[in-house]
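Q: What would this complex look like in 3D?
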Amino acid sequence: MDDLLTDFIAETREMLEASEGEIVAWEADPADRARLDTIFRFVHTVKGNCGFFDFPRLAGLSHAAEDALADCRAGRREPDSTLVSAVLAIIDRIALMVDAIETGEEYTEGGDDALIAALEPGAAPADNALGHGPASAMFEKFEDTQGTDDAEADSPTAKKPDNAIAAQRSIRLPVDLLDRVMSGVSDMVLARNDLAHRLRQAGTQPTIDGPFERLTTILADVRDAITRMRMQRIETLFSALPRLVRDLSADLGKQVMIDLEGGDVELDREMIETIRDPITHIIRNAIDHGMETPSDRLADGKREIGLMSIAARQSGNTISIVVSDDGRGIDTDRVADKAVSTGLIQPSQRDQMSREDILQLIFEPGFSTADEVSSVSGRGVGLDVVRQNLERVGGTIKVTSKLGVGTLFTLQIPLTLSIIAGLTVEVSKQRFTIPQSYVEEIVFSSSKSLDFTRVGETALVTFRGTRVPCLLLGEVLGLPAEDISEDEYRIVLLRLASGDLFALAVDGLHAHGDVVVKPLAPAIMKSGLYAGSTLLDDGQPVLLLDVTEVAERYGLVSDARNRMLKTYEGDVADVAEKNDLAMLFTDFAGRRSAIRLELVQRIETTPVSAIDLSAPTPRVVIDGAILPLVGLPGGPIPTEKVRLLRLTDGSCELLHAVRDLDDAVELVDKLKPASDDPLVEAVTLVDGQPVALIDGHELFARYGEVPEAASKPVCRLPDNDWARTILGPLVASAGYTIAKGADTVEDVAIWFDEEYEAAVASDMQFDIPVIRLRNVPHALDSSDTVYRYDREGLVDALRQARSAGGKN
Amino acid sequence: MQDLLVMSQIAGRRCALHAHDVNSVIEIGTITPVPRAPDFISGITAMRSQALTVIDCRCALGFDPDRWSLDHRAIVVNVQGHSYALRVDSIEDITTGSSEPDQILGGFGPEWSRIATGMIETRDGPALLLNLAMLIEGSETFDAAA
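A: Here is my prediction, written as structure tokens for the whole assembly.
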């Protein structure tokens, strides 16, 4: 209630100041109707305001004055100097009482009745020392005479208390002037930056650096103060709310108390105007739909009077305003029913949605649960407009609610309209800024997770399992395409306020930081692509992209139904993503790297001598398979044995040489896409150390090979020296293991034709392919045999046998 | 009429601007082009902490700018709260006007009539007094193209 009281005092004092001139003028000419009206309005307002508070004396005084003045206005009484004096005495006393209220003192008892009596038509003027004179002087005199009756000693306290009004001095200034000062300070900051740049070039100069540092500090202070000039306490917004709540609850037959907190939080003036309507709307809704009638509340075991509380908090660059009530809460079942019936969501989606998500549906366009349209909440303008208005200035709104307990709206709004966090990107050698609040993630387009593809003319990327449309910024802006391949794009994923996600491909990324947004000329705004301009550190202007407009132009803003669908897929993918594991190692360049654990098949150790360095890509034979090897140092290998990570993507395999192997770790920290090395997907932190995450996709795309027979088929040879010494090497080089011993299960067998025929004749069953060798170059009959020195024929037969054997 | 006028050549013709409309004359630094903006907008440039919209007056009139030389300086004007840098063939001098702006029979030609307040006599002979608000809107053909 303190806020209200402060308002009351401020308002009363303001009116007093404003009407001071009127009072003097009225004194000069009591018949002046216009003055009379002004003073009547003043006492009337004071009387009305006193009704809110427990100030019976103030109310009594103002009421008496009002009555007398009303008589004059109605023509029942002629204002004369006696009346004027009496009214002025009352106004003076009101001023003193207000001062006393502000300082928390009790105003001197008594004296009021005499003042009121003086208003009576018959009151004798001169007798009571109510002489014609300046109002205040008269009052002093009056006080003296009255003081003797009531309380002799307290006439000093009746005077204006000394310790009163430590209130801040303030002046009014046109906003234009403020803006000029602000831009002047911005210029100073730029000049300082320029100077700093030159000083750095000139080297250290202690005589200059000291004062320069001081200048910098002072400038920062001034800038801060200037920024605060545009700020206004949120109180100015809050002050109107008690009345609103009172009127609304009275209209609706409900009893609601309002509790305001954090009125001293400061906000950009324009921002306060922007959030006024949304807050009012939420309060209307809460009282109309949320609050129960007193009888219902009692039946539910609640206090008869409902409580609405509004609290503002500043945290960093945003202000959060929480509007809560202890009403009946939002029935999620009803919300969901309604959403299904209006086609906002599908029944199947409903089952997958959490309570929280269902609640957020109330912000969707075309949603309203009120079964009956009341005069208060109306129809048509709903919470969707509230959300829209907030999002226009970069704010957000969320709701939580518990059935029967209450509802809580949380609004997050940026501190100012003119300073935003921005990410500077480059395309076709030109830089542009994107508001950081839209940026969801930055990815390198070659990384495996992104999968940059084109469907028709539309480019798509895959982000967390969802296909996301991708705009090429260069194409959007009609800039000449740079000589850059598609997998060299940096992809900035942007989340629109509507929840839609889209990707923007740019050539490069620059720094991000707070930027001061300046308006653009109308002719440029007409292009619909830009929201403003800003200056970079070097004083170069850059254009701020209007992300929402761009997305809308390309039809990337979906309707509500699709939106819900997409969020769900996104969420599922999020869950699956959570436990990414990676193998940590140090490569021969000494760089700490990691590779996703799914790719790692096993860890091998091989002597350096086993590495074949003759080909462009080194190769190693591991378990009879020849595998490409990457990650070797450029020069000689410093160790005798090399540890190798054997990587596989399911079909291809390759080896990555490592100097030291660490452990498998969970990738908990954020992955920061890397841009300098195509083989690095991202950089992340593991135990506070930077680690380069190897891009598995790129690695396999470049080096992956299907291993030559990772598990070799077995071939059984005829049991003689010729077969062992002459045929054996040939079969082995074709990729077969020679069966040894009788118990080895072979995949293919080679028989001499005569032995084979003898075996067939003795009813032997062959359940494996058999290659029959003949001793003569030319087949005598059409039988399926191979000449035993026909190398090509043999290899061919073996290949056929293998493919036949591969089927089982 | 003793108004000070800033004289310049635009598309080969002498033009005048009221000196009180002109904030300053600056050396043009780097211009950041604005993709997808009308052709007569060369881009934006920085003047201290302010961003100026750079307008090529010849383009704004509907002429081909390559036919004339280009001054390395620009005239800074403020129209409806926005600052513009006007690029012209050359910036000449400041002079006093010796007459009220006047219309002549038959007009100044379609390109010029749109942006001209009228003809004004100066010490150095007659010049066309420009209407800034019309100038920065650019010619309609370019608007349509944009």
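A: To summarize the key features: The longest helix of chain A spans residues 175-202. Confidence is low (pLDDT under 50) at residues 125-165, 372-380, 559-578 of chain A.
Q: Very helpful, thank you.
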